[in-house]
Amino acid sequence: MNEADPRFSIVDRIRSFKYAFNGLKVFFLNEHNGRIHLVAAVFAIALSIYLKLSGLEWIAILSVISAVFVAEIFNTSIEKLADVASPSHHPKIKMVKDLAAAAVLVAAFFALAVGGIIFIPKLFF
Ligand SMILES: Nc1ncnc2c1ncn2[C@@H]1O[C@H](COP(=O)(O)OP(=O)(O)OP(=O)(O)O)[C@@H](O)[C@H]1O
To answer: Is 57 a catalytic residue?
Structure first.
């Protein structure tokens, strides 16, 4: 698309969606971490349905699931970019990749915490 073109184009918008859905396809089909997160998300949603969560509990669970997916998709994207920018070992690339991985770790940690707070009392007490 021409960046200077101010006209709204429904065709361009649809094309953007197509690229974004292709990104999701790549993430879930090619990336092991994508599949692991998908399985975990399906499990958490199934458990939430089974335990009949309240509206606010659903919002908390869906928010942390989405945070993990977003972090992992950005992490994967940054890894691919870094591999092209610097195929050989580089200390800055190590820092960039480790930071991106840290984002996933933080999101996953808080997802586990929120899941624990919501599910453990309903399952065991
Ligand atoms: N080009 C590089 N230069 C410096 N360090 C690198 C480089 N590539 C990878 N590393 C180091 O190795 C770690 C793992 O990198 P890699 O790209 O294999 O990610 P990964 O987490 O193993 O990938 P995946 O998420 O696909 O399992 C990085 O976090 C970084 O510390």
So the answer is: no
Which one of 48, 71, 72, 100 is the catalytic residue? 72
pLDDT, tens digit (0-9, with 9 covering 90-100), for 18-53: 999 999 999 999 999 999 999 999 999 999 999 999
Lining ligand 1 with CB less than 6 A are 33, 79, 86, 89-90, 93-94, 97-98, 101
Q: Which residues are annotated as a binding site for ATP?
A: 19, 31, 79, 97-98
Mean pLDDT, residues 76-85 = 97
Note the ipTM here: 0.89
Only one residue has tokens 């975990």, namely 40
Measuring CA to CA, how many Å separate 42 from each of 32, 50, 65, 90? 16, 12, 10, 37
Nearest protein Cα to ligand 1, atom 17: 79
Say yes or no: domain 10-124 is CATH 1.10.287.3610.
Answer: yes
Please tell me whether the overall predicted TM-score, pTM, comes out greater than 0.90 for this model.
no
